[in-house]
Model the fold of this input.
Amino acid sequence: MQVFTPNDVAKHAANKYLGVLVAAKYARILNEFPRMSSEIHEKKLTTRALEELTSEESIKYHVVPRRGR
Done:
């Protein structure tokens, strides 16, 4: 089992909190796609999202500023 530390996530995002939010949003997107039922030991979606965030081919994202009230 691979362990992702906050420093690993922070290297590929502006900070560790933003990195976790990006990975969680990406895991939700992955959940919408159909999965292969033949894979017995499929990785959890959050693990796959964190792997892709910390890989060399990182997830591309941009932060949208909040609108004022």
User: Anything to note?
Assistant: The chain has a mean pLDDT of 83. The radius of gyration is 14 Å.
